[in-house]
């Protein structure tokens, strides 16, 4: 075995007549300029090295290659370009074998497709996730993939962005075989030796023939385009991906590559690409709260949940799915049986859909224990309380937890609005208490607000973040206030929507405008889904302390008084005849709204969708600025992640703070000042917003601070 000098981030090593090139660029072997240069140089040198008969490409660490270096997007490109590196690999006169493990994504898969043969470890995950970043595979992926596996499979992988298993990749023909060896390098060498013995030479993917059945390919492309038209909500890159697939069918390989390049550059320049890349990094940044850098998480083996209602059951499912053991405590046997049934129901549904087998359900339920006595929680490492939203009830629960929990147990509340400091004060150990605010349905929604109270210790906070990691949630650190980050801001832009409704916009107009912006649902559809009774109870509770200077829109109360709580009662803002899941507009609701306008002495006026969104977003951004100024959110990006992962804000717009920067903060401030004369109490510009505009800065500058 001969050693060659390591080539920067690409190490060359000889194994007899096989050259092994190992990409070694932690953490994920992204294809930075150094890696591209190292690969290109090594491939070039190998061509004239008569001792080399085959080349194996492999990655050091946990992954083959996670793709292009996303941090380089938007900067001036450094040579060599990735498509050129791929072409050089494919043009090698000596067979190139890609030995794949871990993540083989984006440009990483494109490198593998440029190799002549592909072998994967069973655990490898292959994909072209560029679409999630507003891009398309720009290093030959749109041209080689359809030629290799056909248009239908190629469009599936490119448009979904999903990570396929090695098994699926083998079925498609994306890889040639799955390795028997446990290690990619050894598998690659063994495969190369076998190919050399057989006298196999280079086998360029550009010559692959899976597009030969032109009619089938065209049908797949047409079907993909039709599906985009019906499903796509304002996204730019998917239709460019379909255009590139069409070029693969219509054009010779080299012109297809040029078409792909042109389409890639269009995507690269689009604001959607910038927003989606912002979202990608923001989601990784929120996981790094100050406490996670300086404190160690406590152990997390046995978990407890108090309350088996909607949230308690969902939280238990999330924990069971993560392989943890859960004890659920309810008030009495009947409630406990309901709690257990809610957990089982989730799994039964998955079994019915074929997404979980009976053994999977049994294995999870074996880690579930129910109890009606708090003592069952005495050895839990972390307990999440999810009982009724009532401070006295919660304080009583925390007093009990204080009595039975072992020293060092983390005590968490799932409260939506209540003061975590006051809940902590019900115990003798406030340093162990924090908020873990899950979103409904808790086993599905990604967002987890980690609410740090005045006396919460750093290692309790670090434990909250560790739990989020285990549950595969997206954690965001929040401070204590009414509603934390998300619900506090939501209350304000919901109020803006209610004001518009009373002033003349119908709930259907508002929902349509919000959907037009890219949300999956409008606020009144969400209200109907969540159930109007919850908000009604909150409003009644707060009635006595409501600021009398704020306009109070009573429309929702009129609906609730009639028992119209939304989907579950068959009507709310919309009608849901015969258990329908999508609502239809209700003329009676419009009549109630009219009556309310008359009662309030308001002459209704029309609102364009554009004006609706200006007001909705100005209210959102302004309150977000207040939340930042008060230190409830650490950085603007934390707010973006809350709204992207918990409130349906369209990801391709990057979150409200990123969006506000794109629009321009001066413009948002001008909007607020324009609206203010009609309702000066509601439209008070945030001091932070004014400060940023006056100093010519944007929210992004605070992310970097
Ligand atoms: N470029 C630059 N940095 C990257 C990166 C990339 N492609 N992928 C991951 N990273 C960074 C992350 O930002 C993070 O950095 P940090 O530690 O400073 O926060 C670090 O690598 C580790 O990432 P994760 O925390 O996400 O690690 P996981 O182990 O959870 O996940 C992964 C690994 C599945 C590879 C995941 O990081 C991922 O999905 N990465 C993006 C993959 C992707 O989108 N590739 C396509 C890129 S576009 C492209 O290739 C264009 C081409 O067609 C021309
Ligand atoms: P729920 O009413 O469905 O469930 C509450 C459960 O707690 C009931 O099963 C009740 O029997 C049980 N319980 C009450 N007192 C108890 C006690 N002393 N000991 C043990 N169990 C007790 O309520 P839901 O919706 O699950 O909400 C629970 C908490 O989660 C509330 O604080 C709520 O604000 C919060 N939350 C709710 C969300 C939602 O969308 N429903 C979202 C995020 C947070």
From TrEMBL:
Any one GO molecular function term: (3S)-3-hydroxyacyl-CoA dehydrogenase (NAD+) activity
Known pathway: Lipid metabolism; fatty acid beta-oxidation
Domain 3-hydroxyacyl-CoA dehydrogenase C-terminal: 483-576, 612-697
Pfam families named in the record: 3HCDH, 3HCDH_N, ECH_1
Subcellular location, record wording: Peroxisome
Entry superkingdom: Bacteria
GO BP of this protein: fatty acid beta-oxidation
Gene3D superfamilies per UniProt: 1.10.1040.50, 2-enoyl-CoA Hydratase, Chain A, domain 1, NAD(P)-binding Rossmann-like Domain
Keyword line: Fatty acid metabolism, Isomerase, Lipid degradation, Lipid metabolism, Lyase, Multifunctional enzyme, NAD, Oxidoreductase, Peroxisome
Family annotation (InterPro entries): 3-OHacyl-CoA_DH_NAD-bd, 3HC_DH_C, 6-PGluconate_DH-like_C_sf, ClpP/crotonase-like_dom_sf, Enoyl-CoA_hyd/isom_CS, Enoyl-CoA_hydra/iso, NAD(P)-bd_dom_sf
Domain (3-hydroxyacyl-CoA dehydrogenase NAD binding) ranges: 303-478
Catalytic activity: a (3S)-3-hydroxyacyl-CoA + NAD(+) = a 3-oxoacyl-CoA + NADH + H(+)
Main location per the UniProt record: other
Protein family: In the N-terminal section; belongs to the enoyl-CoA hydratase/isomerase family. Belongs to the enoyl-CoA hydratase/isomerase family.
Protein name: 3-hydroxyacyl-CoA dehydrogenase
């Amino acid at each position: 075995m001969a050693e060659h000098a390591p080539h920067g981030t690409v190490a060359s090593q000889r194994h007899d007549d096989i050259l092994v090139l190992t990409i070694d660029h932690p953490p994920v072997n992204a294809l930075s300029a150094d890696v591209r240069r190292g690969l290109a140089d090594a491939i070039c040198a190998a061509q004239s090295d008569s001792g080399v008969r085959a080349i194996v490409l492999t990655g050091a660490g946990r992954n083959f290659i996670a793709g292009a270096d996303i941090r380089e997007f938007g900067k001036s490109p450094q040579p060599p370009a990735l498509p050129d590196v791929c072409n050089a690999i494919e043009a090698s006169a000596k067979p190139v074998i890609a030995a794949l493990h871990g993540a083989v994504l984006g440009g990483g898969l494109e490198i593998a497709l440029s190799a002549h043969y592909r072998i994967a470890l069973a655990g490898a995950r292959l994909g072209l996730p560029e679409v999630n970043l507003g891009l398309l595979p720009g290093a030959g992926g749109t041209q080689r993939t359809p030629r290799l596996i056909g248009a239908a499979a190629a469009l599936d992988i490119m448009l979904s962005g999903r990570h396929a298993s090695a098994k699926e990749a083998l079925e498609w023909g994306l890889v040639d075989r799955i390795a028997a060896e446990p290690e990619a390098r050894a598998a690659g060498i063994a495969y190369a030796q076998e190919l050399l013995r057989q006298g196999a030479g280079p086998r360029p993917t550009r010559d692959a023939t899976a597009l030969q059945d032109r009619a089938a390919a065209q049908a797949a492309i047409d079907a993909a385009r039709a599906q985009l038209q019906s499903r796509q909500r304002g996204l730019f890159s998917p239709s460019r991906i379909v255009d590139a697939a069409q070029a693969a069918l219509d054009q010779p390989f080299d012109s297809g590559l040029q078409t792909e390049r042109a389409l890639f550059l269009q995507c690269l320049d689009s604001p959607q690409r910038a927003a989606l890349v912002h979202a990608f990094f923001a989601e990784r940044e929120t996981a790094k709260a100050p406490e996670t850098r300086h404190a160690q998480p406590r152990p997390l083996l046995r978990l407890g949940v108090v309350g088996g209602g909607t949230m308690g059951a969902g939280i238990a499912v999330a924990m069971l799915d993560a392989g943890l053991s859960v004890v659920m405590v309810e008030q009495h046997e009947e409630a406990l049986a309901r709690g257990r049934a809610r957990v089982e129901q989730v799994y039964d549904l998955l079994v019915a859909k074929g997404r979980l087998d009976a053994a999977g359900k049994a294995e999870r339920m074996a880690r579930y224990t129910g109890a009606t006595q708090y003592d069952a929680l005495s050895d839990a490492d972390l307990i999440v309380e999810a009982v009724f939203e009532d401070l006295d009830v919660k304080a009583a629960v925390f007093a009990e937890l204080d009595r039975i929990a072992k020293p060092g147990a983390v005590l968490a509340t799932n409260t939506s609005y209540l003061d975590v400091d006051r809940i902590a004060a019900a115990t003798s150990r406030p340093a162990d208490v924090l908020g873990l605010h899950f979103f409904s349905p808790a086993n599905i929604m990604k967002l987890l607000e980690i609410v740090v109270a005045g006396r919460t210790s750093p290692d309790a906070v670090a434990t909250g973040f560790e739990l989020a990691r285990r549950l595969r949630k997206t954690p965001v650190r929040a401070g204590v206030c009414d509603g934390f980050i998300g619900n506090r801001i939501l209350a304000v832009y919901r109020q803006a929507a209610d004001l518009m409704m009373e002033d003349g916009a119908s709930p259907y107009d508002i929902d349509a405008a919000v959907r037009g912006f890219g949300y999956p649902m409008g606020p009144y559809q969400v209200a109907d889904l969540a159930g109007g009774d919850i908000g009604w109870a909150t409003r009644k509770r707060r009635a006595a302390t409501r600021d009398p200077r704020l306009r109070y829109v009573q429309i929702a109360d009129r609906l609730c008084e009639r028992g119209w709580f939304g989907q579950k009662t068959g009507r709310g803002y919309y009608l849901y005849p015969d258990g329908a899941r999508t609502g239809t507009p209700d003329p009676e609701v419009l009549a109630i709204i009219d009556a309310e306008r008359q009662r309030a002495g308001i002459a209704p006026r029309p609102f364009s969708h554009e004006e609706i969104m200006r007001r909705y977003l100005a209210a959102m951004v302004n309150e977000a600025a207040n939340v930042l100024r008060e230190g409830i959110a650490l950085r603007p990006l934390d707010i973006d992640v809350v709204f992207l992962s918990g409130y349906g804000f369209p990801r391709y717009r990057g979150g409200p703070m990123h969006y506000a920067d794109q629009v321009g903060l001066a413009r948002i401030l001008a909007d607020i000042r324009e609206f203010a004369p009609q309702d000066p109490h509601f439209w008070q510009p945030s001091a932070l917003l004014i400060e940023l505009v006056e100093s010519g800065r944007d929210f992004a500058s605070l992310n970097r601070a």
